Amino acid sequence: MSFGFLGIQFGFALQGGFMSRIFQTLGADKDTIPFLWIAAPLTGLLVQPIVGYLSDRTWHHKFGRRKPFFFFGALFSTIALFLAPYSSALWMAAGALWILDASINISMEPFRALVADKLPDSQRSYGFVVQTLIIGIGTWVASNLPWLMTQLGVPNTAPEGVVPDSVKYAFGIGAVVLFTSILYTILTTEEYPPEDLEAFQKEKEANKGFFNGVKEIFKNITGMPPVMKKLGVVQFFSWFAFFTMWSFATPAITEHVFGATDTTSEAYNNAADSVGNYLGTYGLVSMFYALILAFVASRIRINRRLLHLGSLILGGFGFILIYFISEPWMLHISFSLVGIAWASILSMPYAMLSSSVNPKKMGVYMGIFNMFIVIPQIVASLGGVNFLYKLLFGEAVINTMLLAGTMLILAGLSNLLITDKKAIHD
């Protein structure tokens, strides 16, 4: 039931690792890159609660509850992945990113809800960790695709304003993997009908209509459980940090570590491939860390709060270490620490949340919870990253990694706000 996350992460890894490279190739200034990302989180802020609400109220004897959303999200994500590297102008690339991110999210949050639908509370930590294991595999493979294409002889440079073929091939492969892996989950996973189908249909009819839906979503937002609000603080700092990485890792590392800035040069494009390789490291390490967590969570009770706290702080130190690196291979050490944080971000908050919400509203609450992912990205893209890194650390673009590390350490410490015993323990 989680195999489709392999494809989802192919999409996210290619987006996070190489969209800034595409923006730079098309002539974007470093300080404008975060703004080019803004449409995606803005759409997620609106789309996710709606998708969650609708998936909670969907049931078809053949297509199930969550699977229709998997399919349509996969279809539009696939189209956007194919088109993104063929953009000839910045507005086209930003539009492709907008469609890609929104479509992936249409599939992703129902996947989260599916795990909560099908597993008892005692197995949810294990279930979300297994998803993270699959995500780690997808991150590692997808992040290395442009490098692999280059090794196979695909051109890695192109004229000014044109994305290299190595990136185009990588996005094409990612599109195929995304669609086929989600289709595999759709075809092989059985969903359970509502416990009381007649009551489900009556409630659905009673709340039918657009305005009733908006009213219900707003009611759920204002009445969210206290644990969800506290997790929202943790999520804000966590996703601000990772948005900073996705936006600035390529310009920061290619300039600071490799001394390459000319986007038409072989040096820059090889360095950008290497950045993808290092980003793949955090996916690979998150896979192994998730494997360890899966083994532990299936056998003993774990303290989710302390585990998440420690993992995020380690990731924060990983970002900060990038500033002090003198040899490129040392980036593997930094991103290994980041991978520990990433594995925890993709599992522990959802395990804590799913233990604290009404199972009948799992989809809408997972969608609302996504607001705590997209709001920090909106804040960051509207100037939050540019203002803070220059204010706190200085003008050099590598200082964005110092900001990311600081934010992730704050995210870790914010776990101390969570006191609900049911959320903390399995």
TrEMBL record:
Query: Its membrane topology, per UniProt?
Result: Multi-pass membrane protein
User: GO cellular-component terms in the record?
Assistant: membrane
Every copy of the Major facilitator superfamily (MFS) profile domain together lies at 227-426
The reply on keyword Transport is yes
InterPro entries the UniProt entry points to: MFS, MFS_dom, MFS_trans_sf
Instruction: Give UniProt keywords alphabetically.
Output: Membrane, Transmembrane, Transmembrane helix, Transport
Instruction: Give the stretches traversing the membrane.
Output: 35-55, 67-84, 90-108, 128-149, 169-187, 231-249, 278-297, 306-325, 331-352, 364-385, 397-418
Give the chief site where it resides: membrane
A single Gene Ontology MF term assigned here is: transmembrane transporter activity
The record's subcellular location field reads: Membrane
What PROSITE patterns does the annotation carry? MFS
What is the official name of this protein in its record?
MFS transporter
